[in-house]
């Protein structure tokens, strides 16, 4: 009887594959992963974490590779790096147990939180404020601030802890403006999403290129930013100019929020469609459900806000307000543990790569 080969950890398997890539170098002109990997000969655990965060899972390298199965090397670099990414998010998260629960049971956890929190808000609407217009006729402004301010700040603190751990592991140096500028430009252009191909990426069409994933990501990003800007402008109007909600259709909060909600819904819907078409074996299959739950939560956040606005002045406002606030609060609370956090780590990896190029 032959002894069974030992099972490699995600980091060890990714290192094995990167070392083979380093010997081949066929993909040298692809995304930032390969120039970074080919600039060195040995790879620490931190190096593998950095390469995994640089990878945008465009999958172009997989379809170009001559060493995928049935070759004995059995390379599947998109999957190997995806597994390392997920493990790193769980390792850096604070508290880490929350990340593991969401990654493995994201759909059930998100649904339970949305329903539970919405039910709580529904109960609170029974305590109708003495005064208030619009949404504040159902839940006072002070109550909303008391609930959502900690729910916004505490996840940011948790993300900050995770980023500090990431930066220490990958050996990041002091950040200077040129590093940050290059990272912001690459991130805004989604440069690495195309794997070096102007035609797009191979995420959902195998060996054929598509721009669908780029368009979906841009819609989600700008939709989210417009929604955030809408909330921020409403805060400024409330506290600086003493202009309290509700705001009209042609007010700044609505001019930003309505298009933002539409983009968020369209982008999330397209991401779900693409993810259903894509080969799950080229990602991290064990967290597929958690990733889908995160995208669905994004879409529901935008959709519930739009429906709530459309229902203004009707008897549906109270239940729809509870659903929307439950969705938004769930989104905030799960941000450090869902795939939403990948944007922060990806930006950090781009900054670190800019530092590598300068060294």
Automatic annotation (TrEMBL):
Transmembrane domains' residue ranges: 106-124, 136-159, 219-241, 247-272, 293-311, 317-337
InterPro entries xrefs: Citrate_utilization_prot_B, NarG-like_sf
Alphabetized UniProt keyword annotations: Membrane, Transmembrane, Transmembrane helix
Coiled-coil ranges per UniProt: none
Protein name as annotated: Tricarballylate utilization 4Fe-4S protein TcuB
Gene name of this polypeptide: tcuB
């Amino acid at each position: 009887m032959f002894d069974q080969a030992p099972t490699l950890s995600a980091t060890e398997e990714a290192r094995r594959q990167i070392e083979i890539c380093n010997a081949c170098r066929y993909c040298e002109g692809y995304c930032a992963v390969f120039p970074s990997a080919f600039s060195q000969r040995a790879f620490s655990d931190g190096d593998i974490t950095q390469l995994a965060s640089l990878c945008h899972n465009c999958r172009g390298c997989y379809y170009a590779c001559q060493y995928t199965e049935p070759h004995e090397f059995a390379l599947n670099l998109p999957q190997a790096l995806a597994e390392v990414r997920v493990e790193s998010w769980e390792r850096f998260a604070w508290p880490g147990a929350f990340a593991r629960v969401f990654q493995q049971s994201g759909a059930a956890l998100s649904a339970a939180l949305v329903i539970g929190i919405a039910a709580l808000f529904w109960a609170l609407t029974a305590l109708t404020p003495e005064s208030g217009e619009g949404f504040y006729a159902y839940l006072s402004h002070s109550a909303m601030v008391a609930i959502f301010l900690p729910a916004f700040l505490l996840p940011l603190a948790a993300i900050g802890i995770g980023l500090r751990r990431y930066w220490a592991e990958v050996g990041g140096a002091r950040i200077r403006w040129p590093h940050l500028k290059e990272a912001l430009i690459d991130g805004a252009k989604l440069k690495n999403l195309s794997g070096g191909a102007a035609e797009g990426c191979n995420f959902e069409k195998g060996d054929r290129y598509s721009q669908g994933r780029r368009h979906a990501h841009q819609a989600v990003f700008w939709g989210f930013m417009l929604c955030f800007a809408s909330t921020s402008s409403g805060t400024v109007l409330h506290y600086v100019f003493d202009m309290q909600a509700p705001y009209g259709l042609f007010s700044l909060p609505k001019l930003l929020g309505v298009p933002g909600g539409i983009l968020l819904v369209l982008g999330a819907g397209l991401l779900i469609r693409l993810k259903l078409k894509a080969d799950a074996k080229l990602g991290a299959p064990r967290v597929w459900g958690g990733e889908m739950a995160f995208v669905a939560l994004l879409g529901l956040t935008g959709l519930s806000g739009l429906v709530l606005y459309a229902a203004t002045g009707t008897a549906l406002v109270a239940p729809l307000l509870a659903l929307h606030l439950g969705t938004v609060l769930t989104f905030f609370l799960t941000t450090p543990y869902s795939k939403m956090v990948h944007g922060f780590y990806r930006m950090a990896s781009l900054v670190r790569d800019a530092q590598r190029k300068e060294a």
